[in-house]
Amino acid sequence: MAEGGRANADPKTDSFVVPLNPDGQVEEIPSRAVAFFPDEILPFEEKGVELNRTLTQEEKELAAAGYGQLEEQKALQAEKDSDVGHVDITEHAISLADLNDKLLTSVDVKDPGNSNGLTSDEAKKRLAQNGPNILTPPRKKSALRKYIDRLLTMFNILLILAGVLEYILLGVNFKENFQNTYLGGILIAVAFLNAFIDWYQVQKSEAILASFLAMIPPSCRVLRDATIQTIPAADLVTGDVVLLRVGDKTPADMVVFSATDLKVDNSSLTGESEPQERQALTNGSSSRPVEAENLVFNSTLVVNGEAWGVVVRTGDHTLIGQVAKLTSGEEGKEAPLAKEIARFVIQISCIAIIFAIVFLVVGLTTVYKGHPDLTVTFAVSVLVAFVPEGLPSVVTLLLSIAAKRMASQNVLVKDLQGVETLGILTMLATDKTGTLTRNQMTVTNMWSGLRMFSVFQSNNDDSETSQFSLDASGMSEMVDIAALNSRVKFDKTDIPFDKREILGDATETGLTRFAGKYLGSMYDEYQKKFPKNFEVPFNSTNKWALVIVEKPHKSGSLTSLIKGAPERVLAKCSTYLQDNVEVPITDEFKAAYDAAYNYMASRGHRVIACAQSLLDEEQYPADFTFSRSDANYPSEGYCFVGLVSLEDPPKHGVREAIGTLRLAGIKVMMVTGDHPKTAEAIARKINLILGDTRETLAAKTGRSIEEVYEDEVSAVVVHGDDIDNLQGWQWDQIFAKDEIVFARTSPKHKLEIVKRAQALGHVVGVTGDGADLGIAMNISGSDVSKEAAKMILLDDNFASTVQGVAEGRQIFVNLKRSIQYTISHSTPEVIPQLLYVIIPIPLPLSAILILVIGELYLTFILQLSFAWDKPETVDGLMRMAPRKPVNERTIASLKSRALRRTKTLRRDSETQNIIPPSKISKLYTKFTKPLRREYWEDAMEPTENENLVDLKLLSYSYLEAGLIETLGALVAYFVVFFKNGFSPSDLRRAQQATVYFIKGAPDFINGRGQTINDSQQINALGQAQSIVYLSIFIIQCFNVFAVKAKFSYPFGRRILGNAWNFAGIFGGACLGMFIVYTPPLHVVFGGSVHLSPLYWLIPVAFGCLLLVWTSIRVILLKKSIQSSRVKDIKGLMMFPTMRTMSMRSKH
């Protein structure tokens, strides 16, 4: 094989096709199903013929551009490295013996598990003296400051300014503008009321979320009264002995007195990007606290190994507590929904201001010249009509209601905006163990001495498989390795083995249960009989664990036992055990090994290899000093003992959940540390992989894997070893697949995968941090993952994610309906105002009545009722593509913009690192962006995204429903006036005179010669304004159901099934009748008790017309909506997930 991994070269074209295997060899690759190609070659398929073509420089740049921002983020992160300075922590400099005396605790350095720790009584006493182990929360905004922030939103500022303007008019001419007293006061009051409702709901939501989070406090394992206990981290006190393991968040500042390969992530404190090694130092450390190798800090993450530590600082006395700037975290990214709402608020406010100013000028220069008070009042009416004043409050209320409903379904959303973020997920990256599977490992099969044994009774094993027996070759050695090469702990040791709670990861727990089954009561004595001399614990880099025990044999007193990933363990072996004899490894053995491995892994089992080395007395005497730092321990020449498979069955409901998510257009991918074969087998059981990978297609068609190109398959299994070397176009090739599994990955790989997906525009949900929506398991998840996540599954049920996605999508629909419904009344409020200025006619609707319609009827009564809307159809929302889909076109658009942007970045001339722009540069770019052609090209580019406020919504609200409501209101207006003696021409003539329709007005003679006195004029105007007001309300009642019609007509049970809609309508009707037919209120609102209910039939007729138009609209848009539905996926298994022990994959 040539250097660089090239193979299959054509001397004429110098084209290469190179699939890689885990060891970098160009040969059959059973462990993965993705082939990558050299930079200059890209395979593609044309009319069924596989061709190779040269990848142009432009295509390379375009492929890489999409991931350019990742480099920028790394550069910015480098600038944020914190200088923690000198802090008041000295305990790390004290020797362990002195520290034990100082803290008055009981620590056994030689055997930490035998430490007594503190007594419960002493711990309670210290907790009372020093207080709980919690950090004083960062200073928050006061309630008053929060209220002021809510008050100073764009909508409220406009209302307050309009109210102040009315009072200015009152000062200019008090008598003629006396009614402005009410209008100005109501405008300002509404602004303050809006702010109060928004503020109150946010306060209430924060309290509710805080109470939910209090249900899942951080916990830790501590030794008290010589017993390992799990207690809330807040109850820790100085002197407590704590056990730390991988995935734990350090609960306090601790001095380590025993550690095995411990590494901690201090990046949140010190900015160090690499995990830091920590170890016990008998005589203490003279280094600064942040550099001390024997000190671990509160809130840092244990990423490797295990340790025992004694607590030296708690609460505000810890390092993080002393560094004040670290206690106030950075503000998170603004949620997509928040951005959309903010953009809509700005847009609608600008439109309202422009309209108000334009028609103010028109009024002052035409009909109402010399009457500034009338035109200003009109301008205020237009402003109020356009602005949906209560929208921010309604959004908060709707999200709060949804969050509470999700919590009742065991889905806790820590951020209100995160409720809707669930609805726009395009990709879900999930772990396997504990998330998709039950995290309950059970030993099922063993293979040793070229024979397969069944440990778990199964009807699916081959006839050649023997039942497990300790007397069989290699079986006693397998039990030894399972029992002795283990780091599990027990909650109690004074009870029978089968009743103990095992504290350890799922794999070691399964092996320990297996060993305990055959050793029984001898398990504890076995551990004491063969004590550990040296140990290298498992980590994500080595993928094996080694222990040297004092177990005598013919040639010495020490035995080395190793277990781990089969490919890693086999590489250390030169012989294998058969009939208790060490036999050299041959090709025949490797073939049998591959067959046994495939037999186990193809069932979705986790496969562990075991090996041993009987250490020679001459080379390794009993007092030999082993060392990890210089790898001074036996690392080769082992005897391969056998393979053991453990099954972790899928959780109930996982298969259907993944199928449902895929039918919703969400790409679900597995990111696991398991072997690719195991991962693929599990993926096939749970709907995650249905199609062929390159391997399976090659096997089906009788071709070699090298002859199968990526374009022929829809599934890919990527090995973690390849991830670090992938280039941009290779990532594109992976994410273009429908079914993706990443295997043998590390936590670092997982973060890289998520960031790469986000760079392509995906909204990613993933267990842990680093995503748009972090998801954590409450029961099995670590404290760190729960703290970082925005969503917690309280019952650890992955199927709850489906509920979350459905709820997220529904809340978006409900928000959209609410906005669509709210702004529909703008057109019937604005157009009559324009007629009042342009024709003119008597004012059809006063600003006060507009406020009543906009605020009391629609916002707080009817708008909120949409929060309880159910999906329009049974599976409508969960069969639609995400509202911001990611496909080839969107990725190409994103990359072209990124490429354009990367060309403008400044780089260091020597290092070529990106130089972050200054604040002034950012401001300049922000303000000059709209002046550039590219800005408008990007803005006008067609998109498949569905925004909260889009053209369809605006068209319906302003042009369709808005015009129908306008016609209904105006027809009723003119009919009422006509019945009171005013024809349209009479109205124009009377309004132009500007002296009618007020108390003391002269008599008006209409076109028919009838005389109408001032009281009749006022009564007619009151009836006309009342019917316009009621007409808008009545047609809007029909609109409540019309806005819901997208998939079906507005008459179905699901559309009419929300009882809160009818409650809102009833409440609004009562309020409307009260305002119109109560004489004392006429001073403020106008109105007339003489308005006949027969006039209500006019808006009712137009309401029916609106429903007819909505039905026609459903028919017209049906085709485009159907095209947005996700197509059926062939092969989905939507039957319940059953226990699949020993069920083989069909592939």
TrEMBL record:
GO terms for molecular function: ATP binding; ATP hydrolysis activity; P-type sodium:potassium-exchanging transporter activity. It is a multi-pass membrane protein. One of its GO terms (biological process) is intracellular potassium ion homeostasis. SMART domains: Cation_ATPase_N. Residues 90-171 form the Cation-transporting P-type ATPase N-terminal domain. The chain crosses the membrane at residues 151-170, 182-200, 344-368, 374-399, 834-858, 958-978, 1026-1043, 1055-1076, 1096-1117. Residues 267-287 are annotated as: Disordered. It is found in: Cell membrane. GO terms for cellular component: plasma membrane. It comes from the Eukaryota. Keywords: ATP-binding, Cell membrane, Membrane, Nucleotide-binding, Translocase, Transmembrane, Transmembrane helix. It holds the Pfam family Cation_ATPase_C. This is Aminophospholipid-transporting P-type ATPase.
